[in-house]
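We emphasize that the prediction below concerns an isolated chain of 280 residues; any contacts that depend on oligomerization or on bound cofactors are therefore not represented. The input was used exactly as deposited, without trimming of termini.
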Amino acid sequence: MSADARRELGIFLRAHRERLNPQEIGLNPGGRRRTPGLRREEVATLSGVGIAWYTWLEQGRVSASRQVIESIARTLRLDGEGLRHVLSLSGLAAPKLPADPGLAARIRPVLDSWPFSPALLLDRHFDMLAWNDAYAALWGDPGLVPAERRNLMWVMANDPHARRLVLDWEPLAMTVFQQFRRQAGPYLDDVRTGEIYALLEQDRPDLTHWWQCPSVAALTTRDVVVEGPITLIFSLFRPAEEPDALILLQTPREEADRLLMAGLVTRTLPATGEVVGRDR
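Result of the prediction step, given as a token string:
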């Protein structure tokens, strides 16, 4: 934990301490107070830590364990984002967030706003939650993939169309696996993570060395050339309300690439103008 992070943590805790009304947590205001909000000794007592130690924490002089940080967060009535922030400043992993069942419906209009840029919403396990017409036109409709296999890693490993489509398939597919391992670290004990690895082992035992490899990498912004040829800029974004989810956006590099994508989307769309099954 760096000195800057300790100092920022202290500033954050003090600001929330001074913002909290003593009566909100059942304390008697006890006459005139020199500063608004709670006193340091009140936070320390309610959190089960020493007054001197809590003072040092606000002054950025000490670090704290997860148990202590969570106890102080409860005393200060921090919400989920506040807790994640203080844990991050303390160099500790944030708690897992429950999956948001309404995320796909809220994000799909965003995906649709890129009519000629394939876009895909992934959850923490790389399961495909929503996609736009351009994605279905280029990569095939994920809605036609069985639900338990509707996963980006499974598609990259098993879909012959994806393998033919990407002119340099193996490095891209390997990076997708490495990005998943990087993201899945806090969720290795999740049932769904185990299911995905079991499906990969069952369907592509020849690639066992891929998902047994412990290496990690980031799927950073890069050019990917697909049949056409069309050059797409691959970028990853995270929805603020669910930072474990990912939006994979594939933007045509040049005007010629955009025109090729536009033609592909136009030819693929049925008369209704919609691709069936754009979210899970």
